[in-house]
């Protein structure tokens, strides 16, 4: 997998994670028992950019794995 995301417990503790592969930028945020992921095109930060996509997944191991697969597919489709 291209994206090395923190484990599920990181998000269960309320932490936010963001990263990028070139101009493919993403942020994962735990919200009310779910994992929300946001995508935008760089070079600017989340707060200064137009969001292109967002998705929501259950905050459990299956949902986390689904999020990871979705992120990989979105990146593959990005190019």
Explained architecture:
- The chain has 79 residues and is of the alpha+beta class.
- It has one domain (9-78).
- It has 2 helices and 4 strands.
- Strands 1-2-3-4 form a 4-stranded antiparallel sheet, covered by helices on one side.
- The longest helix is centred in the C-terminal third of the chain and has 18 residues, at 61-78.
- It is globular, with a radius of gyration of 12 Å.
- The two termini are 16 Å apart.
- The mean pLDDT is 95.
Radius of gyration: 12 Å
What's the total count of β strands?
A: 4
**What is the CA-CA span between the terminal residues?**
16 Å
Overall mean confidence score, pLDDT = 95
Widest β-sheet, arrangement of strands: 1-2-3-4
Poorly predicted spans: none
The helix count comes to 2
Approximate helicity band: 25-40%
Shape: globular
The helix/strand series, from N terminus to C terminus, equals: HEEEEH
**Total discrete domains:** 1
Binned strand content: 35-45%
Q: What's the story with the biggest beta sheet?
A: 4 strands, antiparallel
Structural class: alpha+beta
Name some characteristics of this structure.
79 residues; alpha+beta
In short:
The protein is of the alpha+beta class and 79 residues long.
What secondary-structure arrangement, pairings included, does this model have?
Blueprint: H1 8-12, E1 17-21, E2 24-31, E3 34-41, E4 51-58, H2 61-78
Antiparallel strand pairs: 1-2, 2-3, 3-4
